Amino acid sequence: MEVVNLEKKFGRFDEHWSPKILAKLNDYHVKAAKLRGEFIWHKHDDTDELFLVTKGTLLLRFRDRDVTLGPGELMVVPKGVEHLPIAEEECEVLLIEPAGTLNTGDAGGARTVEPEWI
After folding, report:
1. Predicted TM-score (pTM) above 0.85
2. Which residue range is the domain that position 65 belongs to?
3. Residue 116 half-sphere exposure, CB side, CA atoms within 13 Å?
4. Is residue 10 part of a domain?
5. Given this model, what pLDDT does residue 27 score?
6. DSSP 11-76
7. Confidence of residue 25 (pLDDT cuts 50, 70, 90)
8. Which of 13, 32, 93, 97 is exposed most, by the fewest CB atoms within 10 A?
9. Would residue 106 count as lying in a domain?
10. Is residue 115 part of a domain?
11. What CATH number did the domain enclosing 77 receive?
C-alpha cells in the first residue's frame, strides 16, 4: 500500500496517448495519460473503459453524439461502443480498465503502446 500523488506522477512524463500504470486494483489498472490532438476511432469488445479528467477538457466523440468532460468529471464508455477521444489542448486523464487492455482496442496499429509502470 502506498500513496499515489497524481501531480507528481503526471510530472514524470510528457508523451501524449501513452498511458502509464499507477496502481493495480484487483485485475484492473489505474492509468494516467496525457492527451492532445485526436486519437483514433476504436472500441473495446470485452470491457468498459472509465475516463476521469483531472486537468483540461476531453471530447469523447461517439457515432451518435459528442460528450465534453472537464476536470472532476468522468464517463464510462460501455464495452463495444466506438469512441474517438479528442483533446484540443493538453488534457490529463485517469483511465481504469482491466490489466492488459490495449489503448487502441480493436483498431490496433501504430498508436498501440504497451503501458509502463511509473
Report:
1. yes
2. 6-93
3. 6
4. yes
5. 96
6. TT---BS--EEEEEETTEEEEEEEEEEE---B--TT--EEEEEEES-EEEE-SS-EEEE-TT-EEE
7. very high
8. 13
9. no
10. no
11. 2.60.120.10
